[in-house]
Amino acid sequence: MKILVVEDNLELLDDIKEFLELEGNVCEVATDFRSGYMKLGVFIYDILVVDIGLPDGSGLDIIREVKKENIDMGIIIISARSELEDKVSALELGADDYLTKPFFLAELNARVRALYRRKTYGGSQVIHFNEIRIEPDLYEVYIHDQVLNLTKKEFDILHFFVTNNNRLLTKEAIAEHIWGDNIEVVDSFTFIYTHLANLRKKIAELGGNDYIKSIYRVGYKFTDQE
């Protein structure tokens, strides 16, 4: 899961980033409206966690821009404002959840996971694609009910493919989603080819089909359609 956190309290921001990354997520951060808005215009995120009170604008304005541009992501507001009116305003603009400060990081993580499940696969804790079964919360994958042993990156790539099946995914999009936006400095995507080769081999060893279709010079599509 790739998450953008927009928060001007640097200590809280560092704590959130560290906690979410320890939970296996890719977490990018921004400390103000401008940098948060710029990241949303360049990179793809699954979840946006945003504070209302930012030094150069409002988190509510970021939500307005996300909805205006039809960017598909889950949105969680974190704010010290606990008044009902603020919560209603945020939810009516399109936020999916509202968490009042102070909060436990474990609660934020639980809400992020629940929102991701709801947005991505209808709230189910299990994802199915033909003979493939993925249990994201447990980081487990099964092929024909046999355990598929994967590295963390292999799991992330397979999960990204399955939840975006039948969509064309560029090499850049895959790299940014799995490794974060710092990946833009690399000049080769050889590491993606290596991970995909290992992933294909492991799936085949358990009798699974190869759904990863290469699109010449562009990227890949995970599909069971010819």
Structural class: alpha/beta
Question: Architecture of the largest domain, according to CATH?
Answer: 3-Layer(aba) Sandwich
Relative strand content: 15-25%
Tally of separate helices: 8
Radius of gyration: 18 Å
Instruction: Give the total of domains.
Output: 2
Strand order of the largest sheet: 2-1-3-6-7
Q: Percent of residues in helical segments? A: 40-55%
Gist of the model:
The protein is α/β, with parallel strands linked by helices and 226 residues long. It contains eight helices and 14 strands. Helix 6 crosses helix 8 (190-205).
Topology:
Layout: E1 2-6, H1 10-22, E2 26-30, H2 33-42, E3 47-51, E4 53-54, E5 57-58, H3 59-68, E6 74-79, H4 84-93, E7 97-100, H5 105-121, E8 127-129, E9 132-135, E10 140-143, E11 146-147, H6 152-163, E12 168-170, H7 171-179, H8 190-205, E13 212-215, E14 219-222
Helix pairs in contact: 2-3, 6-8
